């Protein structure tokens, strides 16, 4: 899909034929006590893509927000909403992953299935990574997990997966830290070559770049917020950004970015930093184990 044609309600078609909403709402660092409300409010605004993880300790609460919304808005069907969770490092390995998948499915029972299950990071070893992926492939066969993928994988981890003789289901995404200061051109090329999408976590830099002079100048030039500029940049790269906020009032402005925010060629040239490698969170993509 051309990024020029996208809207906030657009969906990309994954390599398995399923579709994913391009506007994602993440619940990283969201307390369980707030997750249900924030997810519900995000869905009310129009988000249809919720990204959780086992290590976030808010799977059950995120699912409750989805279930509550579906109950109150029957015109929206379960298949309209895309729910993601992830296998944490300590749970990797074939047998332990099977147990973890069942645990996540139990927490998701009120929404029947999980749309996307990811390996959360590469920080284990080859045997555990491939064992985890084997268990995820088997979960797809049950119909209770619809798509699988990876997160925080570097090109060498992807090489390991694609060279594995047991690979029968290609990853549909690799979720990594992405923003103008960490564009990961190598992973962009890899994703294009192997037909999967990059999901961008920390697309808003956790606020660490909000006072960057170039970013501020672009925002002032158009009358946008720096958040709007960062999200639009991410969409323009063909990424699926996962915006997160703990403030209900900020949910709608984040969701509405594609309605009115446009970056021109000069803006994109300024934000094009192909050689920048500024990690603002963690970087398992470089892990060699």
TrEMBL record:
Pfam families: Aldo_ket_red. This is NADP-dependent oxidoreductase domain-containing protein. InterPro entries: AKR (IPR020471), Aldo/ket_reductase_CS (IPR018170), NAD(P)_OxRdtase_dom_sf (IPR036812), NADP_OxRdtase_dom (IPR023210). PROSITE patterns: ALDOKETO_REDUCTASE_2. The active site is at residue 56. Keywords: Oxidoreductase. One of its GO terms (molecular function) is oxidoreductase activity, acting on the CH-OH group of donors, NAD or NADP as acceptor. Residues 29-273 form the NADP-dependent oxidoreductase domain. The record marks 86 as: Lowers pKa of active site Tyr. Transmembrane segments: none annotated. Substrate binds at residue 120. It comes from the Eukaryota.
């Amino acid at each position: 899909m051309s990024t020029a044609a996208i809207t906030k309600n657009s969906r990309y078609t994954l390599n398995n034929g399923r579709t994913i909403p391009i506007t994602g709402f993440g619940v990283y660092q969201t307390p369980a006590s707030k997750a249900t409300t924030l997810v519900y409010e995000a869905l009310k605004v129009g988000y249809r893509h919720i990204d959780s993880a086992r290590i976030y300790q808010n799977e059950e609460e995120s699912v409750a927000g989805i279930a509550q919304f579906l109950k109150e808005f029957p015109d929206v069907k379960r298949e309209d909403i895309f729910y993601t969770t992830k296998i944490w490092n300590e749970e990797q390995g074939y047998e332990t992953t099977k147990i973890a998948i069942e645990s996540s499915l139990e927490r998701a029972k009120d929404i029947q299935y999980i749309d996307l299950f990811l390996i959360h990071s590469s920080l284990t070893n080859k045997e555990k990574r491939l064992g985890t992926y084997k268990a995820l492939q088997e979960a797809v066969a049950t119909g209770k997990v619809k798509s699988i993928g990876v997160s925080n994988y570097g090109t060498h981890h992807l090489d390991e997966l694609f060279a594995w003789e047991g690979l029968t289901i290609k990853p549909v995404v690799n979720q990594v830290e992405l923003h103008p200061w960490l564009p990961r051109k190598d992973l962009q090329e890899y994703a294009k070559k192997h037909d999967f999408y990059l999901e961008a976590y920390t697309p808003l830099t956790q606020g660490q770049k909000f006072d960057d002079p170039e970013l501020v100048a672009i925002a002032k030039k158009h009358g946008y917020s720096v958040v709007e500029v960062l999200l639009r940049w991410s969409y323009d790269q063909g990424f699926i950004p996962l915006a997160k906020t703990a403030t209900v009032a900020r949910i709608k402005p984040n969701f509405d970015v594609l309605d009115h925010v446009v970056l021109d060629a000069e803006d994109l040239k300024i934000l094009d930093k192909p050689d920048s490698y500024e990690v603002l969170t963690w970087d398992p993509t470089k892990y060699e184990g």
